[in-house]
Every structure is written in structure tokens, then in C-alpha cells.
Design brief:
The chain is an alpha+beta fold. It has 2 domains: about 80 residues, Hypothetical protein yqbg (Orthogonal Bundle), CATH 1.10.3230; about 80 residues. The chain is built from 4 helices and 8 strands. The strands form 2 sheets. The chain has a 5-stranded antiparallel β-sheet with strand order 1-2-8-4-5, with no helix packed on it. It is elongated. The relative contact order is 0.22.
Length: about 180
């Protein structure tokens, strides 16, 4: 099951000023670079934890309705369900009644009532579910260990920008992220 980003975050969990203070940079000459490092650090933290830090929109794509009437979300923390549709054999989309779905935000699962839904006619990517996920709309809602992991990554990227290294997170960053990793069972 895939999750496709449809609405990127409107802000970052770290401001440019916070990152510059952590880096001890007092000039504006590298503001654009540091802003891009903040984004890269957020994306690395999100990939490692499978969590959206700031509220974002995603499309979850399925081939068929899973057995058990539940869909484990590939992104978390779930906030809302904003749309759902099935595709006919020709590719046309039909919206589904959102009352057929219930979000379990504690376990990041989407429950559905099979009897209220139609089967997709399109055998591949026939079901699309639109959700929002993220801790909140601003940096204050993001857990501090995740923000600290971002600071450390920004500092690493800034210091090592002229070197290509293995795509492995430093031990300190991995320790900060460990309690927040969403695991698949």
C-alpha cells in the first residue's frame, strides 16, 4: 500500500532562526542553503519514523479492500479522513460515503464497513483514501526529541555538505527517533 503526498506542510518544525542559532551562524549569506537543510532534515526524520511532523495531506492507494475491514495507515499520526473513492474499470472515480469509515487515531488504523462500499473495477490502484496526518500545524505541536533530531541533522548536513557519506543516521539521531518509529507487524 502506498501513501502519496498530496499537500506538503505549510511550515517546517524548525524555523530558519532556530537552525541558525543552533549552527551559530550570524549572517544571512547561507539562509537559502540552511532552509533547504531544514527541509531535508524533516524529510529524513519523517522517513525514518513514518510520521508526518507537521500536518500534511496524503493519498493512500489500494488495489482492493483488505480482509478484516481495517486499513493500517502507512502514515501517522492520523488526524482526519478527507475523501475516499473507487475507480471503475475505465478509470473514472466515484466518491464514497465517508460515514463508512472510522479513524482510530490511537492505533493509526482506518476501519471501514464493507457493506457500505463498492468494489473497485480498476484492478490496480482502484481505491484512493485521502487523509491528513501530522502532529499539528506548527512547531510547538511536534515532540521535542524529533525537533532535536532535526537540529542534529541540519548541523551534520551543514558541516559535511561537501562530502558524500553513507545514508545512515547518526547514533544520537537514531536514539532520539527510536521511541517514535512506526513499525509494521
Amino acid at each position: 500500500m502506498a501513501a502519496i503526498l498530496t499537500e506538503p506542510p505549510e511550515t517546517e518544525p524548525l524555523t530558519l532562526d532556530e537552525a541558525k542559532a543552533f549552527l551559530r551562524v550570524e549572517h544571512a549569506a547561507e539562509d537559502e542553503l540552511i532552509a533547504s537543510l531544514i527541509k531535508a532534515a524533516r524529510m529524513a526524520v519523517e522517513a525514518a519514523t513514518r510520521r508526518a511532523l507537521i500536518v500534511q495531506g496524503f493519498r493512500i492507494v489500494l488495489d482492493a479492500w483488505p480482509a478484516g475491514d481495517r486499513i493500517p495507515s502507512p502514515v501517522s499520526p492520523l488526524r482526519s479522513l478527507t475523501g475516499a473513492r473507487v475507480r471503475a474499470a475505465g478509470g473514472s472515480a466515484a466518491d464514497l460515503n465517508l460515514a463508512a469509515f472510522t479513524l482510530d487515531t490511537a492505533s493509526n488504523v482506518i476501519h471501514f464497513e464493507r457493506g457500505l462500499l463498492t468494489e473497485p473495477g480498476q484492478p490496480i490502484a482502484g481505491i484512493e483514501i485521502e487523509v491528513t496526518a501530522g502532529y499539528g500545524d506548527d512547531a510547538a505541536s511536534v515532540p521535542e526529541p524529533l525537533r532535536q533530531a532535526m537540529r542534529l541533522l541540519v548541523a551534520r548536513y551543514y558541516a559535511q555538505r561537501d562530502r558524500v557519506e553513507k545514508d545512515e543516521l547518526p547514533e544520537t539521531v537514531r536514539a532520539l527517533l527510536a521511541p517514535y518509529r512506526a513499525v509494521s507487524l
